[in-house]
Amino acid sequence: MLYLISLLFSSLYLIIVEGIDNSKLNITHNSIKTFLKKEHFAIGYHVIAPKYNLTSCYIGKSLSSITLGVFCYLYDEKKFLEKYKKVKNGAANRKICKSKNSYSSILNIAKQYSNENETEILTNWTNLMIIREPVSRFLSGFVQLCVLNIGLTNNHPYCFNCKKDMKCFLKQLYNHIINLDNKLTEVDKFIMYHFYPQSWQCEYFKYKDNYKIILYTSDTNKFYNEYLLKLEESLVPNEKIKFIRYLIYNSKVIHSTSSKKITKDYKNRLLKDKYLMSLINIIYYDDFNEFNLKTL
């Protein structure tokens, strides 16, 4: 209820102060997803470690590179150990296992490992999903892709031609999402992966009772301990747990932005701007609501 009240004020602020037409959304009762179609939420990215009956959905800017590295190690230890010290990004390199243990849906995993029986995967495997606080995740994506252009060409199309303008970007992201319903825009997998709500990915609303949700916060020690505990519960041997602990504490992801001064500058700018935070609260309503996260 408190979040709905906050969302109502965010919506009213956009309409009255900023003049954005939000009449499409009955924001006091519904989230943006109410107006979209089920196919908008069917896209997902999963990695598996079948030896331990483990899957993990991975989402952009929510520790996805480390997830891919850990699951590559658990899937093909020999190949991982041969290559991870020789490649860019080390353990977080996405190309060591390539797509050998990657799937686009739980159903596709079931086709390979349980004769298309999804229930087998959902009940007898541990299905992890790492979730990041929405403001932190948004800032990580925006600074990487739009401010610093890490890993992309200067003229890439993924910032709506807004460049470093956070207000422009959030307005365009908002318009992009609400226009999915009337097909004025189409799902962009790259933008989805980095900026759509996390609860819209991994077929979350279909499988949410089957996911083990782990919240990735600034308290990294707490997060990593919880993450490693889930691996231990899936009977990953202690020596492998120790090695994974070493990997996650010592791997430096090139496109990481959390420790950069410019990220802190953009965060301060965002948190002080009621208009920008109103857009954040509406765009990421489902994440705040589904994962019981407080708005900032």
TrEMBL record:
GO terms for cellular component: membrane. Keywords: Signal. The keyword Transferase does not apply. InterPro entries: Chst-1-like, Sulfotransferase. It holds the Pfam family Sulfotransfer_2. One of its GO terms (biological process) is chondroitin sulfate proteoglycan biosynthetic process. Residues 1-19 form the signal peptide. It comes from the Eukaryota. The keyword Signal applies. One of its GO terms (molecular function) is chondroitin 4-sulfotransferase activity. This is Sulfotransferase family-containing protein.
